[in-house]
Amino acid sequence: MIEPERLEQAGERLDSLRRQIARRIVGHDDLLQGILACLLAGGHVLLEGVPGLGKTLLVKTLSDALELEFARVQFTPDLMPADIIGTQIVMQDESGRRYFEFQPGPVFTQLLLADEINRATPKTQSALLEAMEEKRVTVGRTGHVLSEPFMVLATQNPIEMEGTYPLPEAQLDRFLLKLNASYPDARQLAEIVDRTTGAPPPPIEPVMSAAQLQEIRTLLRSVVIAAHVKDYAVRLVLATHAGNALALPLTKRYARHGASPRGLQSMILAAKALALFDGRMNLSFDDLRACAAPALRHRILLNFEGEAEGIEAEELIAEIVRETPLVGADTRN
Amino acid sequence: MTATDTVWALVRRLRRARQRQILAEHAWTGLCGGLLLASGAVLAVRAWGSPYASLEIAGWVLFGSLAVSLAVALWRRPDELEVAILADLRLNLKQRLSTALEFLRRGDDPTLAESLSGQLLRTRLPAKPERVFAMRVPIWGTVTPLAATLLVLVSLIDLPGGAGPAGAGADPAVVAEGERLSEFARQMARRAQREELPRALAESRSIQRLANRMARAALPRPEALSRLQQLSTGLGQAGRGIDGASTAAGDGVVEDNAVAARSTLQELLEGLMQGRVAPGAVREFGAATDPRSLGIAREDLERALQSLADGDDADLREVLEELARAERSRRDARELAEAREQLRRTRDNLGDSSAFAERPALRSPARPEPGGAVDGSPGERVQESESGSGALGALAGAGHEAGAPPPRPAAERTRAEGGVLRPTAQFREGESFTTGTRVVPGRGQVTLPVVELDARYAAQLEAVLAKEDYPAHYKELVRQYFLLLSAGSQPAARERTP
Fold first, then answer.
1. pLDDT the model gives residue B264
2. What's the CA dihedral at A50, A52, A56, A57 to 10 degrees?
3. Do A1 and B109 touch (CB under 8 A)?
4. Are residues B232 and B340 in contact, defined by beta-carbon separation less than 8 angstroms?
5. Which residues pair with A115 in a beta bridge?
6. What is the DSSP letter of A224?
7. Is A227 on the interface with B (CB under 8 A)?
């Protein structure tokens, strides 16, 4: 159960975290909110945006403010799985006896920035699968547990598709949210120039420890959801399936596969994080609507007609959110 | 009071407000829907006919629609959670109220329910949250004036001719009477146009409209009778409104004297203007004639004669015009009286028992001397009896004086003979007849055979009744004759209970 004092304390900590990050990052409020939601929900996030928007800086700043270990891997076509998860190397002890010792890769961290993840081969990409889902890696016959909290922040460039390997659906499904980094407006650009071409940016002070983060994560799981709100979330997800009775005409026409149950879980968890940010111990329809696109957009596959006509999954989700009634017919008027 | 108690109280207030709102919305919807349905019902009754009056049906439809709407509203009692969800949305409470209520109702975690209730109460709730369910006029309510206007219009506006043939349930008597009345209205209109009688022309159109609706079976018998009665009353008022003429038209003997006197005066005056008649002849006639019959004051006449002697015929022309106006008014009133009699006869033929009692006094076959008063001697003039049984009651009295056995009182005969009277009358030496008639029965006491005129005899009967030179009591004999023929041609006279 959530005690109001704990809720208030968590809210203060999260506000403090935001303030710290805002000292270095200009704009990207939605992006930061999504990343924090993923962090609190214990998920991973896929960031999509053109280079130079500050995605890497945002992740680095977040790690600084959280007192968490940070690692960055630049994904390239020749990157091997062992370059990520680590490898066994031959060692020799003082008696001259040789033995294998596991040398951990960059995945053994708390915040892993997988930059331009779609440039690596599927084999390398899949090396992250076990780590992302089970928070552990297996090398040979030995399993190695990753430290908590563990979060992967992968980025990909939406415009340079030459020489890239689009992420397989199975791996996409493992990202809690897919966030789009938008281009800053004029005021934000001017602010960025001021902050980066003048005096060095102020140092970021850590405001939340891993233990405190873990406490907030526990708190997030205590956020309650009413039956009718849960029903709305279920109907939103079912409406993404072309064969379902709740599907809208646009979905029936352009969708090949709808969101998985993991999509529903992601939406609920992210919405709980938003409720926590708002200082509420219950979920609202607005929370779900805000999380629908980030949680579902990478889980809906379009059919050939949709691809040919340039339809985006976002459009389907927007239509679903717009047309799906919040509650039953009796209480709609 | 704990937070949960406060939330429960809040939910109860919201629920009551929502219940009132639903009731109001349903009432508006029922009213508007009822008005639209009533309009449709009135149109349907007009098109296909019904044994009930259209406005009566409209009233029942409206009442039924309202009753059903309110019953649905009462049956649709809003659930507490439903109300809480709505209030959440309208007050932007981010589902705090509905979530708290759900856990309160679930009851498995009182601490959590208390926390959620406290969270709700910490938000800035409006002072009177039940105002989110304030009474409002729904979209149906805004359409209600239009629906009411529509009902008024369909109630007032007549359907165009040929709106539909007589349906399977058409009343043949109403249709036949409608056709007869329609023919009469056409003739009346022709006469009115020819003789320039404006009031008669206007009333003939009203009769024509009603007759047309009866002829195409658009009116059930009760409604037809009701409208005939209204029209008849209107005609009576119009007749009385025509200056001076109605009195003459209502009293046959005085009327005939006046017509003759005015006609003679007019001829004399025209002869005077042409130099064929001397002024002294006019003065003599004026002095010898009843002033009421002249239709003009003697002083005016004298002044006109004096002016003519002085070489100015303007006054004389004015007198002539006045006489012509009086003649037109007389004809107008006579046409209206005739129309009223036709309407009465139609009601009588359709079984309206009150129509018989409204019969005008019958004219005596022997005309009295001009200017003489009408005496009430038996055998010369039949008068209305005090018992209300009309001319035939007097006929029975006439028979008694001629040596027939004394009649029993009307009430006694009614009880003894089941409401059918068969009086015997004698008009002249050696002339007597016996006829059957109906009496106005006491409520629920007697049954009367209803004999409807056979359509085969309608034209013949109408031809006889239209002849003005037949005395009224002979017309009645002819009417009874055809009714008896009709009764004989019917398998069995239908019984009815008044």
1. 75
2. -140
3. yes
4. yes
5. A74
6. B
7. yes
Q: Which residue of B has its CA nearest to A226?
A: B99
With a CB cutoff of 8 Å and minimum separation 6, the contacts of B447 are B418, B419, B495, B496, B497, B498
Residue A183 is predicted with a pLDDT of: 85
Cβ-defined contact of A228 to B118 (cutoff 8 Å): no
φ, ψ dihedrals at A103, nearest 5°: -100, 105
CA closest to B83 among chain A residues? A331
pLDDT mean values, one per 10 residues, chain A (333 residues)? 80 88 84 90 89 82 86 89 88 88 89 88 83 84 86 84 79 90 85 82 84 90 92 93 88 89 93 91 93 92 87 91 77 45
How many Cα atoms sit within 13 Å of A122 on the Cβ side?
Answer: 8
Mutate to test the interface with A, among B94, B104, B108, B139 (most CBs of A within 10 A): B94
Prior bond of A168 cis (ω within 30°):
no
Query: Is A226–B98 a contact, with Cβ atoms under 8 angstroms apart?
Result: yes
- Predicted pLDDT at A38: 93
Q: Which member of B82, B111, B112 has the closest CB to residue A224?
A: B112
Distance from the B116 Cα atom to the nearest Cα atom in chain A, whole angstroms: 7
Residue A174: helix, strand or coil by DSSP? coil
Please, are residues A69 and A63 in contact by the beta-carbon 8 Å criterion?
yes
A250 token code pair: 């646009």
**Residue B462 CB partners (closer than 8 Å, separation 6+):** B180, B183
* Cβ <8 Å between A229 and B95: yes
A230 in reach of chain B (CB within 8 A): no
Report DSSP state, residue A171.
H
Which residue among A280, A283, A285 sits closest to B119, beta carbon to beta carbon? A280
Of all residues in chain B, what percent carry a pLDDT higher than 90? Answer: 4
Q: Determine the Cα–Cα distance for residues A313 and B83; give it in Å rounded to an integer.
A: 35
Nearest-CA distance from B95 to chain A in Å? 5
Residues of chain B whose pLDDT is less than 50?
160-168, 244-253, 361-418, 445-446, 492-498
Q: For residue B56, which of B38, B37, B79 has the smallest C-alpha distance?
A: B38
* Burial of A287 (C-beta count, 10 Å sphere; 0-12/13-18/19+): buried
Neighbours of A326 (CB within 10 A): 19
Distance CA B446, CA B401 (A): 29
ipTM for this model: 0.82
Of A4, A226, A280, the CB nearest to B118: A4
